[in-house]
């Protein structure tokens, strides 16, 4: 069964050996051309891409966290700003209210004072009038008394005329 | 598995047609396999590309297991081709066996010692070439005298046995597998149909086991090849 191996040892199968070696080398070259080179190239590219992706992912993650920090800062900043604005507005409103109230009070006291003055003036005027009136009337009465002092009738008439005159004075 | 072999004489060299045909078929199958799997290579692998990349990773892993450093990348293609070739060559005889007259034309090419010894000779030659190319001829020849001069015959003998065992291990396993398959199929006879009842499951089981053996032997061959190469690359270790 193995007799051909003995002949093979004497160089009979050198052709076979050459055939195997050459066909294997050709096979290797074809595999390299068809599959090995593209596959290993692609695998290398993929390894590079993955490494790059990891790097860029790291970078963009950092960027995103920076942005978030910035936004948080801006947010807190704007919050304090807003509360400042509100406080300011409140303050200015308060001030305005105070001035308005003060103004109104001043005005009111001014009005009151002038009104009081007017009233006083009027009262004084009225008093003066009354005084002069009273003086006039007293003079009239005195004159009338002096005129009609003689008789009771005359006295009566004097009183009547005085009352009449009073009514006239009233109506005047 | 019959004794006589069909031979052709050409340019003073003798060719065993059975071996050559089987090798051609093996090469074509391997080529077709990688050709079909590598058609649409994309950044995002899918389908056949995944299979091919897994195979590349597998053989690269074998090589990197014994060859350290940057040198490993130089032998990736060799290991890949060797693994696929031996794997297909081991399996092909399990389902194809073409016999015309008294001559067998297609069988496992690795069931012939000429084929396996040629493969191992190529491997050993590559290992020695790589060793000389990397460390220079002086260091290479000094390696034969390590650890001291008396080891020269031992080292020479070791290289020779490496070559022999590498080839003969593969040959023995595959040859025995095919031989047993032939013997089991010989249990059947056309005038006794009952014989199929017991020989079919046995044949099935042995074929399955042979698939396993063939895979393991392809793995072992590539592993040992990378070990021999790494020994030539860094002889101190």
**What is the beta-strand fraction of chain B?**
5-15%
Gross morphology of chain B: globular
Biggest β-sheet description of chain B: 2 strands, antiparallel
| Number of helical regions of chain B | 6
Number of domains of chain A: 1
Shape of chain A: rod-shaped
Description of the structure:
The complex is a heterodimer of chains A (172) and B (237). Chain A is mostly helical. Chain A has one domain. Helix content of chain A is 95%, strand content 0%. Chain A contains 3 helices and no strands. Chain A has helices at 3-12, 14-147, 152-171. The longest helix of chain A has 134 residues, at 14-147. Chain B is mainly alpha-helical and 237 residues long. Chain B has one domain (7-233). Helix content of chain B is 70%, strand content 6%. Chain B contains 6 helices and 4 strands. Chain B has helices spanning 17-37, 48-66, 76-95, 113-142, 152-186, 194-233; strands at residues 7-10, 13-16, 98-100, 103-106. In chain B, strands 1-2 form a two-stranded antiparallel sheet. Chain B has a two-stranded antiparallel sheet with strand order 3-4. In chain B, a hairpin with a 2-residue loop joins strand 3 (98-100) and strand 4. The longest helix of chain B is centred in the last third of the chain and has 40 residues, at 194-233. Chain B is globular and about 70 Å long. At the A-B interface, helix 1 and helix 2 of A face strand 2, helix 1, helix 2, helix 3 and helix 4 of B.
Summarize the topology.
The complex is a heterodimer of chains A (172) and B (237).
Chain A: H1 3-12, H2 14-147, H3 152-171
Chain B: E1 7-10, E2 13-16, H1 17-37, H2 48-66, H3 76-95, E3 98-100, E4 103-106, H4 113-142, H5 152-186, H6 194-233
Antiparallel strand pairs in B: 1-2, 3-4
């Amino acid at each position: 069964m193995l007799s051909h191996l003995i002949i093979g040892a004497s160089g009979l199968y050198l052709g076979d050996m050459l055939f195997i070696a050459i066909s294997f080398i050709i096979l290797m070259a074809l595999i390299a051309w068809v599959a090995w080179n593209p596959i290993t190239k692609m695998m290398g590219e993929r390894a590079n891409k993955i490494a790059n992706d990891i790097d860029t992912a790291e970078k963009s993650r950092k960027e995103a966290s920076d942005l978030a920090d910035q936004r948080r800062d801006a947010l807190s900043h704007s919050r304090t700003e807003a509360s400042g604005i509100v406080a300011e507005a409140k303050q200015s409103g308060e001030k305005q209210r105070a001035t308005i109230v003060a103004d109104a009070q001043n005005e009111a006291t001014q009005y009151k004072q002038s009104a009081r003055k007017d009233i006083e003036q009027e009262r004084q005027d009225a008093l003066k009038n009354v005084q002069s009136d009273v003086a006039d009337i007293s003079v009239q009465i005195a004159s009338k008394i002096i005129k009609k002092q003689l008789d009771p009738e005359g006295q009566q008439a004097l009183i009547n005329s005085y009352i009449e005159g009073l009514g006239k004075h009233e109506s005047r | 598995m019959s004794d006589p072999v069909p031979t052709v004489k050409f340019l003073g060299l003798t060719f065993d047609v059975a071996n050559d045909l089987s090798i051609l078929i093996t090469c074509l199958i391997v080529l077709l396999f990688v050709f079909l799997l590598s058609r649409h290579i994309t950044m995002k692998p899918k389908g056949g590309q995944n299979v091919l990349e897994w195979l590349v990773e597998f053989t690269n892993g074998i090589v990197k297991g014994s060859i350290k450093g940057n040198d490993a990348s130089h032998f990736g293609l060799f290991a890949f081709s060797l693994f696929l070739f031996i794997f297909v060559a081991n399996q092909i005889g399990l389902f194809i066996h073409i016999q015309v007259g008294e001559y067998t034309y297609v069988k496992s090419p690795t069931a012939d010692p000429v084929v396996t010894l040629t493969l191992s000779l190529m491997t050993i030659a590559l290992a020695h070439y790589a060793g000389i190319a990397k460390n220079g001829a002086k260091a290479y020849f000094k390696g034969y005298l390590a650890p001291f001069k008396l080891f020269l015959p031992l080292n020479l003998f070791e290289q020779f046995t490496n070559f022999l065992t590498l080839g003969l291990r593969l040959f023995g396993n595959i040859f025995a597998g095919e031989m047993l398959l032939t013997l089991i199929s010989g249990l059947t006879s056309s005038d006794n149909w009952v014989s199929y009842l017991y020989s079919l499951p046995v044949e099935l089981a042995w074929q399955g086991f042979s698939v396993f053996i063939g895979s393991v032997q392809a793995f072992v061959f590539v592993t040992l090849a990378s070990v021999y190469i790494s020994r030539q690359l860094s002889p101190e270790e």
